[in-house]
Amino acid sequence: MFGLFKRSNSVSTNELASKWNGKMTLLDVRTPNEFRAGHIPFAKNVPLNNIAGYKGKDNQDIYVICQSGMRSKQAANILKKNGYNVINVRGGMNQWTGSVKGGK
User: Fold this and answer.
1) Which part of the chain is the Rhodanese domain (predicted)?
2) CA 70, CA 58: separation in Å to the nearest integer?
3) Is the sign of the CA dihedral 55, 83, 44, 60 positive or negative?
């Protein structure tokens, strides 16, 4: 570990797609408008400004995604401080090539 910050666990969008088992928790931390414009079908929208109040199962991995990976990294740090096991999705929706719900 270097400095004061622990690195969050992370996966690529391809790794997320290959790990998907139907029971995973994926939080999309973009704004509601961004989420409506197109999101991964199994994602739940919890905008970054609401993430500190998130209440979920603490015995389960939580994957977080945003547009590019920056907001999800912030969300991962907040959730980790709240006791969750968090995995950031690197590259965010910019890198996602799977199916998308909503949008055009």
Assistant:
1) 25-101
2) 23
3) negative
Distance, in Å, from the CA atom of 4 to the CA atom of 87, rounded to the nearest integer, reads 19
CATH architecture of 9-95: 3-Layer(aba) Sandwich (3.40)
Reading the chain (104 residues) residue by residue, the pLDDT tens digits are 344 444 559 999 999 999 888 788 999 999 999 999 999 999 999 999 999 999 987 678 999 999 999 999 999 999 999 999 999 999 999 999 999 999 65
Tokens read off for 94: 């910019």
**Sequence letter at residue 74:** Q
Q: List all residues 6 or more positions away from 75 whose beta carbon is below 8 Å from its beta carbon.
A: 27, 29, 46, 48, 51, 64, 66, 86
The pLDDT value given to residue 19? 87
